[in-house]
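haha ok so turns out i had the wrong file open the whole time. this is the CORRECT one, sorry everyone. sequence first:
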Amino acid sequence: MSDSVLWRSILFVPGTATDRFAKAFAADADAVVLDLEDGVDPGRKDDARKAIGAWLAAPAFGRTERLVRVNAPNSPFLARDLAWLPTIEGRYEGLVLPKVESPEQIAKIAQSIPSRRVIPLLETARGIVRAREIVAADADIPAVLFGAEDLTAELGIARTVEGEELLAARGQVVLAAVSIDADPIDAVFVEITRLERLRLDAKRARALGFTGKMAIHPDQVPVINQVFKPTTDEINAARKVVEAADAARARGEGVFRLDDRMVDAPVIRRAEKVLARAGLT
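then structure:
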């Protein structure tokens, strides 16, 4: 379990695409994932590790957090990833573990890194149905990612912009993430140039409870950031709660009435999170 993070947008870049690193980190994403898994040809995994290590050796690039996606638990490449991780210790904010299907897989990775921060990517049927077990793993889990492409491929169904085929799976991921106060992050939208369709997909995800979305191209980041940024009405309501909470604390009250509802610690935390996502704290 972990305090949730403030990632609206998480941009993936292949570990061998060194010419894209700087552009990815300049895209204003909240986090960039340097990828060792699907974005890298099996014959170039070592090249990707070297390139990522060299990039992470440089000073941090702006406010964007740096994540690394290692290979899947059942992959023959994961052992090499784990042996390599000590060489980049302290230079990244967390590991993304793809195709997670059990809490033991998360715990094993967490034990191998000092921060214990592991972000599970749930993208298989087994992983989705075991989501609640997985997020209970002995690790620091600030966010839970949903992967739609692998899941729909496994199910043998098409992914549509309406997204009805993903409602059940998306709901499972959101509930599991929220149950440990982690951020649920929605799947990538693979039609890179169809930004209005991306906006529609992101709005549907936000309505389901997701707090952010993954991206595969820098052009997608502004759309995602805009969709998941709190609205003016949400900000005003949150300010009202926080200001009332401050006044209540001064009176020694932990629970208080605001307009027609009772406000307690979870409501206050949610309001504080809204302000944090809006950059107002």
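The first strand starts at residue 9 and ends at 14.
again sry for the mixup
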